[in-house]
Specification:
The protein is mainly α. The protein folds into two domains: 59 residues, 434 Repressor (Amino-terminal Domain) (Orthogonal Bundle); 35 residues. Helices cover 61% and strands 0% of the residues. The chain contains seven helices and no strands. Helix 2 crosses helix 3. The longest helix has 20 residues. The protein is elongated. The termini are far apart. This is Helix-turn-helix transcriptional regulator. One of its GO terms (molecular function) is DNA binding. InterPro entries: Cro/C1-type_HTH, Lambda_DNA-bd_dom_sf.
């Protein structure tokens, strides 16, 4: 699969056309289709990768980087969390731990290892 095919596949998953993706990334119309012939600049490729909740590594090679164990959904969650102010991140982390503890108490989830160690 080529660079543009991978971008097209991810854009489709995100219900985006090339034109919409190019507009959102602030790049010229028709630019992405040229990337199989002309190597894109890193800043443009990074903007597209971020919009697609992907990595530049994946777009260029079709393989995940060293963080291959992280799904696109997890990357999106991390991206959203990174937009929060520091205090909100701390509060949100506490809420997640409380939610997991509640699931473990109800038998819906095994108690996370981090919680076991804290006891």
């Amino acid at each position: 699969m080529t660079l543009t095919e991978r971008i097209k596949d991810l854009a489709s998953t995100n219900d985006l056309t090339f034109a919409e993706l190019e507009r959102m990334a602030g790049i010229g119309r028709g630019t992405i289709r040229k990337w199989d012939v002309n190597i894109p600049s890193a800043d443009k490729l990074l903007r597209v990768a971020n919009l697609l909740h992907s990595s530049m590594d994946y777009l260029m090679t079709g393989e995940e980087s060293l963080v291959s164990g992280i799904s696109h959904e997890d990357i999106e969650l991390l991206d959203l969390m990174n937009q929060l102010p520091h205090d909100a991140k701390i509060e949100f982390r506490g809420e997640i731990k409380g939610y997991l503890k509640g699931l473990a108490a109800s038998g819906s989830l095994e108690e996370p290892a981090e919680m076991k160690q804290a006891k």
